[in-house]
Specification:
Two copies of one chain form a homodimer.
Chain A: E1 2-6, H1 7-17, E2 32-38, E3 41-47, E4 51-58, E5 60-63, E6 65-70, H2 71-80, E7 85-91, E8 96-101, E9 104-111, E10 126-131, H3 132-140, E11 157-163, E12 166-172, E13 176-183, E14 190-196, H4 197-206, E15 214-220, E16 223-228, E17 231-236, E18 255-260, H5 261-275, E19 282-288, E20 291-298, E21 302-309, E22 311-313, E23 317-322, H6 323-331, E24 337-342, E25 349-353, E26 359-363
């Protein structure tokens, strides 16, 4: 194998595929990045068997071939190369790959390409396209609500439900639920899958094109792939039945409160300085006389209390929540004002932006003895 | 105790004294910050018995008094307060301190001030003044050369040697030595003390005044204090005899090499990507034919090699070093060029800036089998 390419493109490609290199690989070969040079293209691949990433870049290929390099050292070395171009030549006898850039020269030990589980394109049963900015918005507004508890896999992923032109993404850890709706331009069909949150987080990080472009999504039994620019990402899906989240959303509320997002958010952050050190991180909200008093009490530290103006339509109410579940949603709301809607101190409440009917967040209160 | 002050000044003072609050306090009271209000000043104090810091700020004191608060929560709370001013009132019966700022109110549990080991000014045997920018330069150019090995305390500190108008700071871990000289305006006397590197690092972080100003240094048996602006820092000294470092500095060298600092530094950093994962982090320097070839070889990863132009006066030479000891000094040299001076592959070498006779760095080579 012998090729040359720009350092910038190689660094970009290595940074992308590196996300699929496991820190604790099941087999040594999975700690590596696979390189394949042919037809004036270099293909880089990495996989941990859950997530696989392919990234292609242009190169001047003098001799085709494939090789596997330790991902960690390859990334470190490529990033620090001094020149604008990089020349790479393999030495089969010494099992090394020579990387030359200006006056710097590295000979990295290589692994045989034949041992690498080369990624294959999915044999898709359903395919559709979605704008990357829309897909990123679906992820960003829901993925934080997933559970981290691997014992219940369904809650570690987001439901993606496509029904003709309607796309819904939903996530829940059973204590809170986040649902975001968007629309597709042209697709007729039905998809209902659960995508691991880890993959969605990586996708949101990789999809940073300045100009909105299309992502092609292919689904097959148990797998999904995402294709955009020069990147191909393949992932397993989570098996099982996502809970019927629509049943959790209360049809109406007895009390509807309007709050300024930033004011309420800053006050909740301050009061939770006192609550967050305890396991339950409980804050109490007292809605009364056109204000909400946010308070917390930690016997080891002290008390905090802050009042914020509120427009209250309905009954006064005293209710307690896990502060993190409140701050998480407030960080994801861009509107100046929010609606906080409640029924009783023990029934699910809703927090949503004033100007966006497509975003729903349901939060279960905490029962307190006070 | 009752007072009000600006949030900005209070945050500044808490951030400074916080550095003396131990994470693993010997006694619960040492996890706290002591506050004393009188004469329209607030004094904040913290100590871990090795390092003590006092910071004073102006305040509108309505009722004098003293109290101790948990350092960690006090810092978190003060930083996030919403208003420009802060009002603080203690409640003796409840053992709490009420902090009010705009609509936010915190009641933090307090500890009795009587239990706090209040810091006392040193009874100095010698005192002198030094410009903070000069003192910071002395620290920055030497403290990195200290050892972290607490088993040999002398090498965990910097020697400060004042002899009339000459000030020298020196540090060594026995494998390398860094010495920086400066001059005092008016002082006649002699001081020879070893200051813990931890305190010097904290000092360098705290002394960030935009306009150069004087620091007053007071020494007493076993202790040192630093006074500047509204800050008073007191520390123990390290006891023992600092090695006679001047004997380590070779009087002359057989080979003198001139190198471009940035070029050499970048090449050493790249080559050490390969060496740094092994325990010894060894790079080899081959000075020959107006260039230096920097190389390293790690049987588990591969080889790296890079050549940089050099002006060599004297014999060609092959010599190996711990790469960290080379990069550490290069980071602290501001000059465009350095002198690298050598005798034999096994005798100490010198690296110094071309235009600064007051800075000396001696490094012991590594014996290699190759």
């Amino acid at each position: 194998m012998k090729f040359s390419c720009t350092k910038e493109q190689l660094v970009h490609a290595v940074n992308i595929v590196q996300k699929a290199v496991s820190n604790k690989p099941q087999m040594p070969i999975l700690s590596g990045i696979y390189l394949n040079a042919e037809n004036n293209m270099i293909e880089l691949q990495a996989t941990d068997y859950e997530l696989g990433i392919i990234c292609k870049i242009e190169a001047n290929v003098e001799k085709a071939g494939a090789i596997v390099l330790s991902g960690r050292y390859f990334q470190d070395v490529v990033k620090k190369l001094p020149g604008e171009t990089v020349e790479i030549v393999t030495n089969k006898e010494e099992h090394t790959m020579k990387i030359t850039s200006n006056s710097a020269q590295f000979n990295l030990l290589s692994l045989p390409a034949s041992e690498f589980p080369v990624l294959k394109p999915l044999n898709a049963t359903t395919s559709f396209k979605i704008r990357d900015n829309i897909f990123r918005e679906l992820i960003k507004k829901t993925v934080f609500a997933c559970s981290a508890d691997e014992a219940r896999p369904i809650f570690t992923g987001c439901l993606l439900n496509v029904n003709n032109s309607d796309v819904v993404m939903a996530a829940t850890n059973t204590h809170r639920l986040s649902v975001k709706k968007e629309y597709l331009d042209d697709f007729t069909g039905n998809v209902k899958i659960i995508i691991p949150s880890k993959i969605l987080n990586e996708l949101a990080r990789i999809m940073v094109a300045e100009v909105p472009s299309d992502i092609r999504i292919d689904c097959a039994y148990g797998q999904i792939s995402f294709t955009f620019d020069n990147v191909y990402i393949i992932s397993r899906l989570i098996e099982g039945q996502f809970p019927d989240y629509e049943r959790v959303i209360p049809p109406d509320f007895a009390t509807n409160i309007t709050l300024n997002t930033d004011e309420f958010s800053a006050a909740v952050e301050r009061v939770s300085l006192i609550s967050r050190v305890s396991d339950y991180n409980i804050i109490r909200l007292t809605f009364k006389e056109n204000s909400v008093v946010i308070s917390s009490n930690n016997p080891d530290i002290g008390k905090a209390e802050e009042s914020v103006p509120a427009i209250i339509e309905g009954n006064d109410l005293d209710i307690s929540f896990n502060a993190k579940y409140v701050t998480d949603i407030l960080k994801n709301i861009d509107s100046e004002k929010i609606y906080f809607s409640l029924n009783t101190p023990l029934s699910p409440a809703s927090i949503k932006p004033c100007d966006d009917e497509t975003y729903t967040y349901i939060i279960t209160p905490v029962r307190t003895t006070a």
